[in-house]
Amino acid sequence: MVARSAPGCRAFDSADALLGARVVDAVVIAAPMESRASLTVSALGAGLPVLVEPPMAASLEEADWIREAERAGRLSVMVGFNRRWWEAAEQVRRALAGAPEGELVVESTIAIDVGDPDPFVALGAHLDLVRHMVDREIAIISGLREATGELEAHVTFHGGGLASCRARPAERPEESIIVRAGGRTYQIWSGSDRIRPPRGRGRRALDLLDTAVRRVGLARDAVAQSYDGLLGGFVHSVQTRRFRGPTTSDGTAALLAIAALRRSLEEGGTEMMVPATPGKPPEAD
């Protein structure tokens, strides 16, 4: 079906057949989580750079396998945390650059489809986004799961600062993040490219204007634009051989945080230390 929708596209019976044909310059992996690690390692073995959808592996052991293949092949793997290309998130990251340690509070919410079987995937993506925006590693995490299906993670960062990240079921997907630091408040949500004013009539009016512009087809929503940025960034990396983007260390950091969150939930919400990410220098407390 995919081949028919793309004239000139050549179809293969298997990933091994595609890799063996030597007809591609790079690989994008969006397969089920259980096969992402093996496909990534196969592509690296064929000498091809990879963009893999997060979570990049089904376990920490598989993540280690990917990093070993990455080092052996001297190739880079980009993990598809598309929200890092969300322009509003990048504005907040720039606004927080150089902020002193300590006072930093983040509230993150992602609404997911009511039928989504694994809210940990959505929450892992937001944990990466928050970690990226504040430029601090996660030190401690604890969890809470409500009967309504809402999943919540409470985070303490190395260097100080707190975050509360929630994934909740909803009929319509939506994302929002509020950041308070240095006496200022920034708010972003998936229907806006703005970070200020954080609230009030002025912000509502501006966001309504943005929504109207998108509805008449003059602009795409922020999340769709972030996917464009992710794919564009990967293509640029392949063409220039200058790799920029979320790395396997970032992918592993998300897996470590989610693994600690699961342990916390199993133990009634106990705070759990998140191990240091391989490839990252240890953080000073």
- The CATH homologous superfamily name of the largest domain equals Dihydrodipicolinate Reductase, domain 2
Backbone shape:
globular
Count of separate DSSP helical elements: 9
State the low-pLDDT regions, or none: none
Write out the strand line-up for the largest beta sheet, numbering strands in chain order. 9-8-4-7-6-5-10
Number of strands: 10
- Average of the residue pLDDT scores: 89
Quickly count the domains: 2
Main sheet? 7 strands, mixed
Looking at the structure, the CATH topology of the largest domain is: Dihydrodipicolinate Reductase, domain 2
Structural class, by secondary structure, is alpha/beta
Estimated radius of gyration: 20 Å
Strand percentage, roughly? 15-25%
**Terminal Cα separation, in Å?**
53 Å
- The helix/strand series, from N terminus to C terminus, equals HHEHEHEHEHEEEEEHHHE
The portion of residues assigned to helices is 40-55%
CATH architecture level-2 label of the largest domain: 2-Layer Sandwich
CATH class designation of the largest domain: Alpha Beta
- The multimeric state of the shown protein is single chain
